[in-house]
Write a structure and sequence with these properties.
The complex is a heterodimer of chains A (266) and B (211). Chain A is an alpha/beta fold. Chain A has 10 helices and 8 strands. Chain A has an 8-stranded parallel β-sheet, covered by helices on one side. In chain B, helix 4 packs across helix 5 and helix 5 packs across helix 9. The chains are: A alpha/beta (266), B alpha/beta (211). At the A-B interface, loops of A face helix 4 and helix 7 of B.
Chain lengths: 266, 211
Amino acid sequence: MLIVAERINASRKAIRAALETMNAAAIQREAVDQDAAGADYIDVNGGTFPGREPELLAWLVDTVQAVTDKPLCIDSPDSAALAAALPKVKTRPPMINSINLERERFDRVLALALEHRAKLIALCQGEGTPATTVDGKVALAAELVDRLTRAGVALDDIYVDPLVFPLGTDSQSAQVTIEAIGEIMRRYPGVHTICGLTNVSHGLPARKLVNRTFLVAAMSRGMDAAIVDPTDAQLVSTMHAARAVFGRDEYCMGFIEAFQAGRIAA
Amino acid sequence: MADAIEAVRNWVIGGKRKEALEETQRALAAGVDAATIMKDGLIAAMSEVGRRYSSGEFFLPQMMIAARAMIEVVPVLKPHLVGKAAEKRGKAVVGTVAGDFHDIGKNIVKMMLEGAGYEVIDLGVDVGPEKFVEAVRKEAPNFVLMSALITLTMESMRRTIDALDAAGIRASVRVGVGGAPLTQKFADEIGADFYGEDAYTCVQACNRLLH
């Protein structure tokens, strides 16, 4: 299970404030905490100050790399910001979050992914309104995988994100995403699926419980990566236990090691 | 009569559409004034729902079902409101800006405005500046309300305000902006009239500016 650590995101107030004053210490604290908690990739997102995103994203890369050797997930819909940040990445390969099927964005981000040999999060999202059915999501995933592999991206470098929408406004949204994950993993052996968890519980109480429950269900259909807060001990514990339960953890060694490292909150 | 209106209000707050509908029909049959049911029943209910949502007491689905209940009761009252106090409070054009397909926040604002008695023209998602300009020309609204959920599309708000300016109609409307990545600072910077931190404060701002 690949953990992409989500905390350094400009949509969070603390990060926005740190970006505003270019407070490197605050950013580095988040990076160190997430590294220690077991992040595989550390996501960096600097997008809340229009016009300054390339500069801030590049700064985030430098700032985070000063305290960790973990590879980074460069998070922006803007190819100019990605282009400013990617050349600075030291630990290979970087991950790009994200590409989708919008025409310009697809071409530009694909070019950057090929140039920097990056792993790619591919959102099931086209030009229009987002797909809200299993068939719709799978069709977008198929188009993404076909076009990316044809362009030379290895299947193993593609992390398809079928997107999940808030349950609070559509009771079927999580189930649709879960089924889409199963179908994508069945159709393209070797590809990865990934999801952010927080959107599913938007507007609901006890959000972390809903996020964890969704994570387990998505993992049961083969999802093998997630964009999460690795410092959330309950979430990470659930993830380790689910890996074992779904037969992806030989002799439960991953689970046991996590326990012995003090990462399991039972 | 006050009891009947209070019952309608409570059923709507609780999102019980069947009960809200039946109580409304009973009240109408008993001769309760339709405009009063509208104002003290439905509009008051949605205002209370907005307040509870804004304070964190209510969760998103609770607001959705309350709005759904209200939307089902309105057609029952409509025939009785003709020529009466059915006049709208004001008119608003709402939309999610170009390049952005997030509609949840925009829809909440729309429901809250309708609940507060506004006429709402919903332009949908991915709405470009020219569409806003066209709608302002055609509808002559009091408000233009724009939503954006991603940083990249926030710039579309600026372009829309500039386009309203260029079309010479900027002064005819009040422009409000909202959405997760927005700040008061950004709203000021692009020359919006107000920033709505959530749907409830947006409606309150509209009410304030209308007076």
